[in-house]
Amino acid sequence: MQLLISIKPCRRRTLMMDMMNYDHGGWWMGRMWFFPLLFWILVIAGVVFIVSWLRDRGQGQQESSLDILKKRYTSGEIDRDTFEQMKKDIRGDKP
């Protein structure tokens, strides 16, 4: 304590702040913007991921028209000639 009293008042205050670690900002203060930015990027990415996942999950897997035609043929709903004609129409083959 004797050392602090013998130093000029202005310098004593700075020395006390250094000793009590009040000047801890230094290089860190210039980088404080990184964590809020990272937080908001992760929040936005999470929202986009959840929305796209919900949208894709709600649609389900759609059957192609050829798959539907094959099911109709195997169930006996249409005959072979009708199946072949419709298959050509779906594929876009010219008669």
Element-by-element helix/strand order: HHHHHH
Largest sheet: none
Compute the number of helices.
Answer: 6
Number of strands: 0
Could you please describe the fold and organization of this structure?
The chain is an all-alpha fold and 95 residues long. The protein has a domain at 56-95. Helices cover 72% and strands 0% of the residues. The chain is built from six helices and no strands. α5 runs antiparallel to α6 (80-91). The mean pLDDT is 76. The chain crosses the membrane at residues 33-54. It comes from Candidatus Tenderia electrophaga. Keywords: Membrane, Transmembrane, Transmembrane helix. InterPro entries: SHOCT. It holds the Pfam family SHOCT.
In short:
The chain is mostly helical. It has helices at 2-6, 9-19, 26-29, 34-59, 65-74, 80-91.
